[in-house]
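To the wet lab folks,

You asked to see what we're planning to order before we commit. Fair enough. Below is the target structure as tokens, and below that is the sequence we designed to fit it. If anything looks off to you, flag it before the synthesis order goes out.
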């Protein structure tokens, strides 16, 4: 009987610890999203020099076209070093393929053409990074809007 009571107590303790840890994580995630907000695709942003400002934790809402606006550039400077997750979203079709490239200064550190694939990248505080969205092949019958999402993992 003593054993049963002991394990029940342990169970109650573990449950309360894990649920309070979860509650803290939830609050932090909400805070980051609220602060970072939405970053729009503001033309001209067709070269690295014209890159639009972006911040980790924010969401990019952009669009490229098949003729005149074929590239969008964004830049961010992490406020802390660590790992980030960055995700690209758009309507991928057979003849509508976009890619997202991430550069640290001039070096490519990440590349994806797959919606929903999270790139895990190490970043350094105070260093300039760039994101370039471009089309590999573009269909005038498909949608051309896209989003980018990111967050710090640690
Ligand atoms: Ca552009």
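Sequence we intend to order:
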């Amino acid at each position: 009987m003593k054993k049963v009571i002991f394990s029940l107590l342990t169970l109650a303790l573990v449950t309360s610890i894990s649920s309070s840890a979860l509650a803290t994580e939830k609050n932090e995630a909400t805070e980051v999203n609220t602060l970072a907000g939405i970053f729009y695709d503001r033309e001209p942003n067709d070269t690295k020099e014209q890159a639009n400002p972006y911040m980790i934790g924010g969401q990019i809402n952009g669009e490229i076209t098949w003729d005149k606006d074929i590239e969008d550039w964004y830049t961010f400077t992490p406020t802390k070093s660590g790992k980030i997750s960055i995700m690209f979203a758009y309507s991928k079709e057979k003849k509508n393929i976009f890619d997202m490239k991430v550069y640290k200064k001039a070096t490519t550190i990440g590349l994806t053409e797959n919606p929903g694939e999270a790139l895990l990248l190490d970043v350094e505080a105070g260093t300039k990074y760039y994101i370039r969205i471009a089309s590999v092949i573009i269909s005038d019958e498909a949608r051309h809007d896209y989003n980018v999402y990111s967050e710090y993992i640690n």
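Structural context that might help your review: Residues 43, 45-46, 69, 71-72 surround calcium ion (CB under 6 Å). The helical segments are 2-36.

Thanks,
Computational group
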